[in-house]
Amino acid sequence: MNTDTAQPILGAGISEGRLLKPIRYPWAYELYEQAVANTWFPHEVQLGEDLADFARMTDEEKHAVTFLMSYFNPNELLVNKALAFGVYPYVNAPEAHLYLAKQMWEEANHCVAFEYVLETFPIDRGAAYAAHVETPSMAAKEAFEVRYLTRMTERTLDITTLEGKRDFVRNLVAYNVILEGIWFYSGFMVALSFRQRNLLRNFGSLIDWVVRDESLHLKFGINLVLTVLEENPELQTGDFADEIRQMILDAVGLEERYNHDLLPHGILGLNADYINTYVRYLADRRLEELGFPAHYGVSNPAKWMAAANDTLELVNFFEATNTSYEVNARTS
To answer: Which GO biological process categories is it annotated with (predicted)?
Structure first.
């Protein structure tokens, strides 16, 4: 008999979570299967075909692409650290472990994808690497995330305690909801805006693949947060809810300052205020998915994002289904 089915999703015992069937959390295994089907490799995209576009772009446009790479590249690896130290060791369910293992591979793949961009476009790699440390608004975002990761690396959480469970949820919100679900999506919108103007179309395709992965990461993270809250009702206090909500609002402020450095003067059809309206729209969606009311009450200024590809339909996010590229796709 598989006694694992009696275990909650949180737990740090090596003896638990070693039998996959029967599956206790079908949503986790379904996400794993979809992630496997979505497997892709960066060099399948012919980025070299975008070089002519990059050459004729303005300095402000080139700065935006470089700035995005400066942020995305190291933070994909930062997410991996958060998963390895702050999530994987504290989850019992083997189906969740399967998904997390695939997610960590995907984060590594994204890092390689952004290295491919740096290798292909005439971007000063040293300057791009330095920007995430030297640009105050970018460094502030990383400091926000590292603060939560440090809790996981400096000491082992005791998730049998209320505070240990709170720290686990804080880490999930910081990485899955804020970093991947708001900050990354803000950057994706900017990256894909070039394709809206018939520029960097292959770069846009690369971002499409990254976004599709991230949509599953976000869905997994939110499902995991909600499952932990459901299984640990003692976490459901007004004070803790206020803390989580404030984390998200604070993150919006950090992103708004970052976007003014990303686009200090604006480019055709896009400026920092436009991006920040989109950030507030994203924050409202994340709040609602966690059970909070919307805070900003703004409409989506980039409605074209919903049609960019099937993973970007954020309002109907959890119903999105990919059909464009699947490994071992089943046909009827």
So the answer is: deoxyribonucleotide biosynthetic process
Question: Using omega within 30 degrees of 0 as the cis cutoff, is the peptide bond preceding 22 cis?
Answer: yes
User: Which residue numbers belong to the known binding site?
Assistant: 76, 107, 110, 180, 214, 217
**pTM recorded for the entire structure:** 0.86
CATH of 52-319 given 2.40.180.10, 1.10.620.20, 3.90.550.10, 1.10.3720.10: 1.10.620.20
What is the rounded CA–CA span in Å between residue 92 and residue 74?
Answer: 29
Q: Measure the CA angle with vertex 305, ends 300 and 311; round to 5°.
A: 115
Q: Of the residues 116, 129, 296, 325, which is catalytic? A: 116
In one letter, which amino acid is 300? N
Distance, in Å, from the CA atom of 103 to the CA atom of 107, rounded to the nearest integer, reads 6
Q: Where are the domains of the chain?
A: 52-319
Q: How far apart are CA 132 and CA 125, in angstroms?
A: 12
Q: Say how far apart CA 177 and CA 295 lie, in whole Å.
A: 16
Our answer to whether residue 274 is catalytic in this structure is no
Residue corresponding to tokens 């997994």: 220
Q: What is the pLDDT of residues 237-282, one digit of tens each?
A: 999 999 999 999 999 999 999 899 888 887 877 888 999 999 999 9
